[in-house]
Amino acid sequence: MDISEIKKNFEHFVEGGVLAHGYIFYGSDIEEQWRFVREFANYLENGSWEINKKTLSDARLMEDIKEFGIGLVRSFSEFLYQSPNVSSFRLLAVKDASRLNHLAQNAMLKIAEEPPEAGVLILTVNDIGALNPTLVSRFAKIFFPKGKISTTDYGLRTTKLMEDFLSGGKRERSALIKEMVKNEKEVPLVDDFVLELMGELARDTEKNWRALKELTKRYELMRRLNTNKRLQLEAVLQYLE
Length: 241
Fold this sequence. Notes:
By secondary structure, the protein is of the alpha/beta class. It has helices at about 5-15, 30-45, 70-80, 100-115, 135, 155-165, 170-180, 190-200, 205-225, 230-235, and strands at about 20-25, 60, 90-95, 120-125, 140-145. The chain has 2 domains: about 20-140, P-loop containing nucleotide triphosphate hydrolases (Rossmann fold), CATH 3.40.50; about 150-240. The chain has a 5-stranded parallel beta sheet with strand order 2-3-4-1-5, sandwiched between helices. Helix 3 (about 70-80) links the parallel strand 2 and strand 3 (about 90-95). Helix 1 (about 5-15) crosses helix 8, helix 3 packs parallel to helix 4 and helix 6 (about 155-165) packs across helix 8. The longest helix is centred in the C-terminal third of the chain and has 20 residues, at about 205-225.
């Protein structure tokens, strides 16, 4: 996915009511991730991606903190669990979450395990391996490519998977899920595939609401519990036309 496609997907997530409580943005260009965060904060509150000088009421963007300790992360929780003032969500984002120490990451994990009803937490990082694997497993993960996308780019692979999945029958869809999950350790595509699929289904919520509801539930189980990804994804097949 390029940035414009990521934006479209997030618009569909918001409109379709399937915005996750937590995301990890990762990739070599952390400034591009952070630019998206600032634009998304404006979109949630003002309905526009364009950044303006207006002070945001329901967003807290942490970018100039030298060290993130447990006390600061606990203040994140206090912010996220409050009801939004003008937006539908409260957004808290951390630039370069690799600066979170061990205790702070554990405190962040608690937020992810007991997510606030109207709170969205975004972590940006260059290398996803810099974060606690358990913490990583609780967040939806989105890869941000650097510059223009080539035909062999990781993002295009997930888009092609999603397109092949939707164009196939139940047997072809099941085989694609099996192969993708089988190769997850070598080529981790499941997260991006699910998010691409959710974005596509959310384009027509009236038609796809059952599949979208089931996919959201199953993806939440995959992120929060150590469940069989293949079985969770295959449970959605019966709801797809």
